[in-house]
């Protein structure tokens, strides 16, 4: 069972489109993450939210805009993306943003294709 | 920041043999080391983890060992099965909200 739910599973968009990715968890986790993953590469951290506040932005281009409306939801707003942004976008959550020994739970991801 | 190296990048074993994947890390403050299995087109799944106050942990056919002095940790899979074929990632964490991943090992178990 996937405890972190991501929608949509697949998304094809043009470079001028605006779309959003959604992530939801109901485990009471207070840290949520966005990762970008290319085929056979490790997940690449984009953003971290701790207690609904943005705590880490790994120098991600402004065409990616994260939002955390509440402790269960995480969005990633997309605008004017480039073909190289095509990838699997993974959301993850972990219980405690402060403790260093809690596992991350990943969603199934959104496979994004930019035309 | 932390740097995690993982070897080998690809590994092929005969069914029933053992597989070992090794990772090294650079920051002695890292205190949590999870291993993830990712099948093609699927999400990374946590298969085992170890905390810095433990030297070894086992779960059925999977075990992880940690050597804090040498700053390395290893994944051991015994009696491998075709369904173990996947990409495996190690990771290290210092704080609760930043995980550093290794580059991955593509494991193929040959029936």
Question: Which key features would you list for this structure?
Answer:
heterodimer, A: 115 residues, mainly beta, seven-stranded mixed sheet, globular, B: 111 residues, 11 strands, 0% helix
What would you say this structure looks like, in words?
- The complex is a heterodimer of chains A (115) and B (111).
- By secondary structure, chain A is mainly beta.
- Chain A is 0% helix and 56% strand.
- Chain A is built from no helices and 11 strands.
- In chain A, the strands form 2 sheets. In chain A, strands 2, 4, 5, 6, 9, 10 and 11 form a 7-stranded mixed β-sheet that branches.
- In chain A, a hairpin with a 2-residue loop joins strand 7 and strand 8 (73-79).
- Chain A starts with a strand and ends with a strand.
- Chain B is an all-beta fold.
- Chain B has strands spanning 4-7, 10-14, 19-25, 32-38, 45-51, 56-59, 62-67, 72-77, 86-93, 99-101, 105-110.
- In chain B, strands 2, 4, 5, 9, 10 and 11 form a 6-stranded mixed β-sheet that branches. Chain B has a 5-stranded antiparallel β-sheet with strand order 1-3-8-7-6, with no helix packed on it.
- In chain B, a hairpin with a 2-residue loop joins strand 6 (56-59) and strand 7 (62-67).
- Chain B starts with a strand and ends with a strand.
- The mean pLDDT of chain B is 94.
- Chain A binds chain B through residues 2, 31, 33, 40-43, 45, 48, 50, 55-56, 90, 94, 96-109, and chain B through 31-32, 34, 36, 42-46, 49, 51-52, 87, 89, 93-99, 101-104, 106.
Short recap of the structure:
Chain A has strands spanning 4-7, 10-13, 18-25, 31-37, 44-50, 53-57, 64-70, 73-79, 87-94, 105-106, 110-114.
- Overall average residue pLDDT of chain A: 92
Structural class of chain B: mainly beta
Q: Biggest interface and which pair forms it?
A: A-B, 28 and 26 residues
The rough form of chain B would be described as globular
Order of helices and strands of chain B: EEEEEEEEEEE
Q: Can you count the beta strands of chain B?
A: 11
Shape of chain A: globular
Radius of gyration of chain A: 13 Å
- Beta-sheet strand percentage of chain A? over 45%
Main sheet attributes: strand count, strand direction, barrel closure of chain A: 7 strands, mixed
The amount of helix of chain A comes to under 10%
Assembly of the depicted chains: heterodimer
Give the count of helical stretches of chain B. Answer: 0
**Cα distance spanning the termini of chain B:** 41 Å
User: Which structural class is indicated by helix and strand composition of chain A?
Assistant: mainly beta
Order of helices and strands of chain A: EEEEEEEEEEE
Q: Mind describing the biggest β-sheet of chain B?
A: 6 strands, mixed
Range of strand content of chain B: over 45%
Q: What does the average pLDDT of chain B come to? A: 94
Uncertain segments of chain B are: none
